[in-house]
Amino acid sequence: MPPHLASARTGGMAALATVIALLPLALSNNYFYDIAILVGLNAIVCVGLNLLIGYAGQISLGHAGFFGLGAYGSAILASRYGWPPLAAMLTTTLAVAVLAFLVGRPILRLKGHYLAMATLGLGVIIFMVITTEDKFTGGPDGIAVAPFSVGGLVLQGERIWYWLVGALLLVAVWLALNLIESPMGRALRALHSSEVGAEVVGINAADHKVMVFVISAVFASVAGSLAAHYSGFVTPGKVTFLHSIELVTMVVFGGMASTFGAVVGAAVLTTLPQLLTVFKDYEMMVFGAVMMGTMIFLPRGVVPSLARLFQPRRQEASGKEGGA
Amino acid sequence: MSLLQVESLSKKFDGLNAVDDLSFDIQPGAVHSIIGPNGAGKTTLLNLLTGIYRPSGGRIVFGEYDLTGRAPYEYAGHGIARTFQNLQVFFNMSALENVMVGRYLHERCGLASALLRGPRLARAEKVCRDEAAELMRYVGLRSYLSVAADAMPYGALKRLEIARALATKPKLMLLDEPAAGLNPTEALELDDLIGRLSERGVTVVLVEHNMRLVMGVSNHILVLDYGRKLAEGSAAAIRNDPKVIEAYLGSAVAHEDPVGGPSASAVAVAGEARR
Amino acid sequence: MPKQYSAPGSQGKGERDMSAQFMQYLLTGLTVGAIYALVALGFSIIFNASHVINFAQGEFVMIGGMVTMSLAGTGLPYLLAIPLAVVAAALVGLALEKFAVEPARGASVVTLIIITIGASIFLRGLAMLVWDKKLHALKPFTGDTPIAVAGATILPQSLWVLGVTLVIVLALTWFFSRTLFGKAILATSHNRLAAELVGINVRMVLFFSFGLSAALGAIAGILIAPITLTSYDVGVMLGLKGFAAAILGGLGSGIGAVIGGLALGVAEIMSAGYLSSAYKDAIAFVIMLAVLFFMPSGLFGKRGGERI
User: Residue A202: left (phi > 0), alpha (psi -120 to 50), or beta?
Assistant: First the structure.
């Protein structure tokens, strides 16, 4: 197990880093850079969300809310109150973490459909607050956001952002892989499979669920802050229930309990609508059909389904080795 | 001093007394069995003794700590581990990882070190992996070291739960029908394993229908019927207790084919018949 | 939803006006609530039969309103247009079960949620193609001269809403308690395996429950369209609020769905009238979260004690 795990870890990280490093060769103009950055930001959210849904087995239909809070928090603090963007982002992230911690405990007592509905409700309420409190948020019209700057260095332009988001995605993936392979990560996977089984070996399931909920909210919030600064504008469009669904679909499409799956899911489903614009009016229909189709025919997601193709031989080999 | 003291413990479900005013002590360092007909409240009792159910009344004192009303993870933290009749294996992991999860209490790490995976954690993980592998060998799962849990046969999964429970380094281990579903050879191997657990210094509480196993390994037997204590004592005493024979044979005759036989072995026979 | 609901603000004109205003809010609230109740009933029927939460429930509401609008537009009388629209929605419901839910039987909760949400997006996209993105009006069934009730006024269409909802609730009660098929559905929701063992065709029950619940949704959509207008995306909010109503009443409980829907409608209109209308749409979700936090089984739901 250790060698092949190590290969999935370092090999996967290396592959991802290579893709990020080489992709610009194929990105012929700023429009493609723009899509790549969107992919990266969504992937960061999905890597966090996958810790919650894929590993700990707790669904959330409200993560667009945390993304939105990150975006608006940064926008309001940096633009309306003139805070330095980095301080605005860190403060916002901290606030989102506190909020997720406070609502996490009552929400994560729920299971299955009830948990889905509660997180959905939370997301919708965040959306409504953002659209209604127009004094701060600009309401449905949104607000402009100052560019990101660190110590006088202003970050602008697709290329700089590409490398920033790419680097952060690598960091996010690395953190997620570390967590999963730690005692804490094993505890999360354990409670996914059997909460009673986890509790009787000393794992406080409630605490762990809240913790991973907070982590996933923080990932979403940071991505939201970055997205706001990058595009220079935020609207409630990315805070909707539909966006929450898109995020969950990315995770499930790529493959639950697969960090690289989450990245692949984000990449495919972020670029898909761009391709679907060819279909114009059919875009929505096709997107709905893709969601249904993948869930019906590839319920395990793309990456684990592909990985399965290569797995049988390896497992047999390691079985023998263990028996020796 | 006794390891576990149960004082007038009760559990009601919708007015029905599953465990009813039950008191007993468990002394350290022996194999204790809890037997009784189906529905006598044995599994409910184990769920109470691990905090999965909250008692309707009474107290559970472990060593010097009153654990009444505490959460399951707190029971585990004080040194009570268990296995399940209907397996609670983590089927999304490898067998080895299942046992590694059992070491959770002894390998705590902060969130920061989990996320950053410092060298100390990496070393601790290696120790954890080695000890988990050692425990798997101890329970006889040498050949499953790198197998996924969902690819293991039933009998091996039962041992896996024992290894996982052992990994918590318990003072008291509750085994819920470990022999159920095992073939006779596997059941025989279990005698040996339970004996070794006891030698290791772990106090074992065994809930079991397999009377051959119970009579063979137990130093002390508690008989439950309708959630109450019917009898308590050594294997020999229980074997000849008329109350026990009646409870067992009475219900056995009612539910199963009547099995005749001399009273001395009636309990054992009835116990086997219901397997 | 548009602002037709908020009664004329008349503050400080004595007690009679106060009670008239209260009456007005109550009547409006009950009307909206009846629609939520119908949607919630649809959720409950499908949830009971299949343990699927059908996120496409709101689209049935949309289909009902839009199809009726189109058919009436061709000159067809309501007496024909409405049954046809209900049948159309029921067929969509059956197709949803057959082609999206049935193939994914035994899938996880997340998978089923995404499938039904995918279906709702698909249907909305389809509606956008078949019709357009505009708001459409539907003529009230019997005129639009308000009727005075205890100092307040009520639209004839609201009476239709309340009356039809009442008839449906009575009919469903009869159906589930007196007919063999209704009892088969109840049996399936109780214990699927046992139902199968006594010879109930469980697949048929699931299939039928989607049709029935789609028909209920469509009726709700037709009833409310003359008051609130209809469009391709009218189902999103109505679906979610119907869901909140089902949670409030207790997921899976028929009487709970009705009471939950009415209570939610009244709470929404009252809080918009007396407190602030800015968060009118949020009320349903705040109530839903409060219920989930403090009494997850709702007003009438079964308490689910998890045993190991």
Answer: left
